[in-house]
Structure formats: C-alpha cells, structure tokens
Amino acid sequence: MRDSSITNVSRRALLGGMSAGAFVLAVGLPRPGRAQEDEPKFGRDAMPNGWRDDPNVFIAIAPDGIVTVTCHRSEMGQGVRTSIAMVVADELGAEWENVRVDQAPGLEEKYGNQDTDGSRSLRHFFMPMRRAGAAARTMLEQAAADQWGVDVSEVKAEGHKVGHAGSGKSLGYGELAAAAMDLEVPARESLTLKDPSEFRYIGKDTIGLVDNMDITTGNTTYGIDVKREGMLYAVVARPPVYGGRVASFDDSAALAIEGVEKVVKIDAADFPTGFAPLGGVAVIARNTYLAMKGRDALTIEWQDGPNADYDSEAYRAELSEAASTRDGKVIRDEGDYDAAIASAATTVDAEYYIPHLAQAPMEPPAAVVEIKDGRAEAWACVQAPQVTRLRLAERLGLEETDVTVNVTLLGGGFGRKSKPDFVLEAGILSQAMGGTPVKLTWTREDDIHHGFYHTVSVEKMQAGLDGAGKPTAWLHRTAAPTIGSIFAPDPKQKLPFELGMGLLNMPLAIENIRAENPQAAAHVRIGWYRSVSNIPHAFAIQSFVSELAHAAGRDPKDYLLEVIGPAREVDPTNQGDVWNYGENPDSYPIDTGRMAAVVEAAAEGIEWGRELPEGQGLGIAGHYSFVSYVAVAAEVEVVDGQVIVPRVSIAIDCGANVNPDRIRSQMEGAVIMGVGQALMTEVTFAEGRAQQGNFDTYLVPRMETAPKRIDVHIVGSDAAYDRPLGGVGEPGLPPVVPAITNAVFAATGKRIRQLPIADQLRS
C-alpha cells in the first residue's frame, strides 16, 4: 500500500515537438477480431470504434531519436497525455527526456474510441498502448539484427538504443527508425511484453506532467486561446428557460456599436434537445468584449415555454412525494422485504436530497470553427471529438469526412465538455459569416445558466434492524430526472447505467432488499457530471449506514464493515445491474474484500477512534464505482455553525497503479470537489431560471476552505498488471460527501440529509 500526504510534487517540462522529417514506425497491426453476433462485448470492445494498438498510429521516431507519442484522449488535468506516453515509452525502452507528446484530432477510425469519460482511458488502453510500444521495440530490434547479420534473439532494445552483447555494438533508435518502418509489423500474439520488474516508468513516481511547465507558464493552448487569421468573436444570448424561444428581438442598438459585425438568430432545438444548441441571438464582433457589449444592447422578448414554472423547492416536494409511495418501478427485489420490515425490532427512515450541480470547469466552453472550400475545421476543448465531428457535420450539412476537430487542452471538463453544443454554435456562426473563422466563447454566467446539470435527487431510505442491531430489511427509492431526457421524448425513470451507479450494485450483506425508481420529469438539460449518479446514491447509502450504526449503538466504521460483510465476489448481474460500467462481470465482479480493505486503510489514515474535543468529529464512507473501490474518512470541526474540514484520509484500490502521481492528484481533487458539494455548491431554479450565475453565488471551495491535510492511500498490488484496471478520475468523489456529513453528526449530533450544508447548523 502506498501512503502519501498532499505536498508540492515535481513536474517535468514538456519537451518540445517532433522533429521534422520523422519516420513513422510500422504499417499497422491487425484490428481486433469480430466477436460472434450473439457474443456480448465488454469494455473497450463495446465502445464505438473500439480500440487500436497500431504503432504506426501512436508512435513516431525521428532521425535524431526523438520519440513522439500521439495521445488520442483529451487532456483536462487528469494527466492522460503523460500516462499514455509513459506506458508506451516503458514498453518501447525509450528515455523519457527524448519523449514528446502530440494530441490526436477526432478520428476514431484511426485511433479507436476517443470519448474521454467514464474513467476509461487507461482502463481501456493500458494494454493496447503496451502492445504498441512492444511492437515498435520488436521492430527496432529486428532492424538492428538485420544490419549486423545476427539473430534477433542476440539483440536487446533498452535505454533508447539497441545493443548486441556479443560484439558490444549499439545503434540509437533514430538510426534504426527508417529501416524499422519497412519491416512487417509483428503479430499481436507474438509480442513479448515486459515483466513488471523491468518497468522504469509504469508504477513509479519518477514522471511528472509532461505539460506542466508549459501550462504553468502560459505557453500552451486551451480552447479559449485559439487564434486564426481574420477571426471574429461571438457570444450568444440564450433562452433563460430550458425549451424557451425567441419571440422577437431588436438588434439596432447592438449593430450601432462600432466593431459589431452581425447579429444572427439561432433556431431553438426541438425536444429532445440532445447536444443541439439551445438557440437564441448571437452577436459577432471584432473582439469578445465588443460582442458582449452588443449582446447587452439587444432587446429580446422570450417565449419561456413549458418549463417556465420550474421551481426547485416545489420540485423537491414533488420528488419527495414520489419517493414516499410504492408507485415506482421495482428494480431490485431480494428476499421478502415486507415480511422482514414487519418483524423488525427497530425501523429507521430517512430521506436525502441533493440539488442540481453545474460542472463549472475553470475554462468555460469555447470553440473556433472555420469553413473553407466545403470543409469545416474546429479547434475546441472537447472530451468527445468524434461526437463533435459527427454533430458538426450534421448541423452544417457536410460529410463527416469534410470535418476536422482539433482537440486543445481542456481547462477542466467534469462531463460538461462531452457535449459539443458550443462547437455547433461556432460552426453555425462561421457559416453565417461565409466561412470566416469565428470564436464562440461562453462566459461563466452562460456556463451556469445554460449548461447540462447534474440531476436533482431525492433518495428515500428505510431499514429494519433485529434485536442485535443487524439490518434485516433495506428499502431504497430513488427519484431523479434522467440523462435520457435529453435523448428521448419525456422518459421519467433512470436508465440502466444510472441505476448501476452504486444503487443496484451496492455490495451490502443484507438478505431482504428492495429498490424502486419512481417517475421524475426533467425541466432542465440533465448531463454527465463527475461520478454521475454515484453522487446521490453514495450520499444516501453511506449516510444511512451511519444512521443505522447510531440506532444500533455501534461504531460507524465497524458497522460499515459488518454490513459490507465477509470477503466474497459478487456478480453484479445477480443484483439487477446489467451495465457494470460496461465491463465483463466475470473479469470485474464486485469484491467486498477490496471494499473492506479501503475502508480499513482510510480509517487507519485518519487514526479512527481517537478522542476529539467537543465540536469535532470523524466520519467514514466507502463506495464502489467505475470498477474501483474508494473509502474516505473525514475530520470536521464545527464553529458557530460553520463546518471546517481540516483533514481527510482517502484510500483507493484501482487495481494496478500505473501512474501513482496522477492517482494521488485525482484523489486530492475529488476531496476538494466533494468538500464543495458538502458545504456550499448548488444550482437552484425559480420561474425556470437558474438563480446562480458566477462564483459569487455558485460557490466552490477556495484555498481557505480546502482541507489542510489530505492523505492518499493507494491500496492493492503494485505488480498486478495482469489484473483488470479500475477507474481513477471519477471514483474518488462519491464517498467524500457522506464521510463529511457523517463527521458533522459525530461533532454536533445533527444529521445532515440535505445538500449543501450551507447554514443548516447555524442557530
């Protein structure tokens, strides 16, 4: 187990671009074989356009020996450009100082699936990237053996050169690249991957972010930084209510502003809206300031549409009523819940609520689109470049092959930038200007007022305990609008993947379980947000386990471990989860032993059981998500109704630890984000309009709010690289909030069932 406290860690500078005249290795490995029609597909095989492990696609070696690795996933702070490059470099035997990274455009037929979401980048591409590196290494060795007239078994690639032990000869990678590229690519099954004991980068703490120096010195390009010759700038006035439309508008005052070039009406999307723009009125000008000034000068009469009456408090009451009846769809039913609850010695009831949340990435959405000679080219901070390419082609009436999407760095994503509505807006406006490049920028207020929100949710819980305090009956009703509402007409129940996020697949040892899903209509655009439905499910389940522990007079940590039960492997399909994060349940069963291990590690890290002064407390929570196991133990102090979180211990078991530096970073970021969810973050609605607009009202943690100490514990075998990998980017978040709210109860005796805590503790 690796332990660490949060510290300033070293980073490496980005080491420039690929030299001119580079040779590209190989001509391509065979694509994955097709499964039988009736054979289910899982993991990377089930993703659109699958995967590739072709060294010709991902690796180039220049005559001077510089190795350029192409990263086909979007970099948004999670370090994927570094992690993919280090995996390739390790198998290739390259020296890190001679490795560069290029970003791939959206082109899935070449690169395989490029959706950067679901904590899947390394989970799906660790082995393909290892094979790409191994294939290139094998070809370099064969090229050297041919030049020396020796058998390939006598040579070895290592340290950026190929050596022959018998003669002492060696050739650098750059010297061999041209000859190597003419060789036949070795068959996948013939490759010899390195033993983990040979790894120099994988699993080590020696590699920092390849982009770090450029990012910290401003020498890189985010979506908002793109510039094109002759570029114009635009902002859009969008309907303030989801589903609203422009009734009429007067643009005369806007057009009177010097520098405003044109005002363009964008038609509203029909329901279901998908990723289409919301519509509205765009102002195009010579710079963004003038465009914003022109937007302010518009006079627009809005027709608010069907969601004009949406009100957060009224809707919460609707969800609560829905969750209080047995009218919902039964989605899990084991044992005899009715009989068990009727015979229980004690019953416990609770209802939990979380509000809408906005992803609020530090860089709001921004894109540039230029149309020339019947082709469109976009530069954008997108998580899903292929989806962007397809939707842009559809909107502009072009062939998909006539659209190029260049992926910039993302200043945060959290799911918002999986939806390319902002790129489509830029394309519409470029088309309106005869193909002139147009940069479309969202302000922070645009982002919070018109985004794709994390769903609002009411979670109704009931349990029965026997005389010893053991839970014998468990009921969970979850009422929340579904992400499916943006894709299909008026669905009112969660999709299987949402139900499979910590609800159906909760690994608790309780004999009589019922889960139900009442109907809930959507009144805003619902979209992915880091960890998605795991957030409300973990908050409810882990808070409720703590409540049961209190009712039973037990220590919360000990009780949680007993409810998790003995070490065993659980097939999630037996619990009604047909999704399992897209992974094969045979390879990814739920392992309660691993769940218990992270709970123990988090508790040990916080020194669970120590005495604390009045007004301070410890809380604990654990959760399985994105096929990884995470537990959090939090220490809180409550002073005059204000919650302070001085210390958090977080433990993760994600399988093999490919890049420990990034694992720690993701866990630290999850803790800080979770602190915000627990204490202050929410979006509320009145008359269909979001009531928050910028960081003065949509509150996120600042330096003084973040825990002074975050201890990260990486649990599991460092050497288990043949074991399926779990996710890292998303699973750290769900248990943070219930750990904090459980600690608040320990400190104050006040149970938190509504997020955020805000002023609930103030007298």
Number of helices: 20
As a percent range, the share of strand residues is: 15-25%
Which residue ranges are poorly predicted, with pLDDT under 50 across at least 5 consecutive positions?
4-36
Give me the side-by-side strand order of the main sheet: 11-12-9-19-16-17-18
Q: Please tell me what the overall shape is.
A: globular
The separation of the N and C termini measures: 43 Å
Please compute the radius of gyration using only Cα atoms. 27 Å
Mean pLDDT: 94
User: Quick one: biggest sheet?
Assistant: 7 strands, mixed
Question: How many strand segments?
Answer: 30
Oligomer: single chain
Please estimate the helix content.
25-40%
Give the class from helix and strand content and strand pairing. alpha+beta
Describe it for me?
The protein is α+β, with helices and mostly antiparallel strands and 763 residues long.
Task: Produce a short descriptive summary.
This protein is of the alpha+beta class. The protein is 27% helix and 22% strand.
Features:
single chain, 763 residues, alpha+beta, seven-stranded mixed β-sheet, five-stranded mixed β-sheet, 20 helices, 30 strands, 27% helix, globular
